[in-house]
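tl;dr need the bound structure. longer version: we got a ligand (manganese (II) ion) that a collaborator sent over and nobodys looked at where it sits. i said id run it. heres the input, straight from their email, havent touched it
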Amino acid sequence: MASDTLGTTLTRHVFEQQKGHPQATGELTGILNQIALASKIMSRKVNRAGLADVLGYTGEENVQGEEVRRLDELANDVFIAAFDHLGHFCVMASEEVDDAIPIPDQYQCGHYSIAFDPLDGSSNIDANVSVGTIFAIHHKVSSGPRGENQDLLQCGTELVAAGYVVYGSSTMLVLSTGRGVDGFTLDPEIGEFLLSHPGIRIPERGKIYSCNEGNYPYWSEGVRRYIDYIKTPDKESGRPYSTRYIGSMVADIHRTLLYGGIFMYPADTKKNPDKAAPKLRLLYECSPMAFLLENAGGAASTGRGRVLEVTPEGLHQRVPFFGGSLLNVRELEEFVERYDAK
Ligand code: AHG
Ligand code: MN
Ligand code: MN
């Protein structure tokens, strides 16, 4: 009765889920509350971006060789400040920081590591297009008192929780702790995330494909043939598919989760004709999104296997990504298997 009246808050939802785990310490609830707090701060910053003089570039390049936007830097600072003193994390990694971020000596170390993309899709921000934050949480596995790189360099199969926040026409937090996927919408009047999309399931097949098709000439034969195939008219199977591409992974995955279809960022030879290179980062983009998609009944593949099974070798490692409805992803894999050299 009470929850009907109040709505289910994120805190309550996580608390109820944790009740099913007798060994739960409440730490995850604390972590998710803090993610929610930092997201609320970012939601406000993004909403007021045009007024608050935070658009444009800082004039610096990040570890990826990309120009850093002022809002990227701000988001990075907000999330680190929200996480470093909690006592729940032992080490952190951010897209915007070259090395692992230690917990300052004056703070306690906890049982979890976190990797995050503080602001995803930031190249869109000046045009008022949806952007987001992505996070991935693992257990501490190192034995020393403080965290180490190995706490971050874990396969997606070992994720404890992952999710994203999309700062769109409304702000939504989409989360999985390994038991399905739930979506929460920020009610700006009360400043709480309320459960709005319980138990999200992605359709088994979708009729939308999402990629930067300008890169077509630089893709492998298998990927190009797959794209040709889904654009070839066939009334019975609903082809050609529609194309939708926002250019913010969070927003593109969010739509894919809700409507089905396939989102792709294949490796391409645009920069180096001799070697195809992927763009999206494993630890804080591909792996958490793969975890959400699989938990919603979908799939995420590098073209040759589960993204979640890739063993990370570096904090900023990149992998090809094909994620979405199960049958669409399987079909793409068949094309790669048939036409691309191993
Ligand atoms: P970020 O803004 O965190 O650097 O990520 C950008 C990523 C991702 O959001 C999106 O899917 C992709 O870059 C878009 O790349 P293109 O502009 O090459 O299409
Ligand atoms: Mn990103
Ligand atoms: Mn980013």
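gonna send this back to them w/ a short note. The chain has a mean pLDDT of 93.
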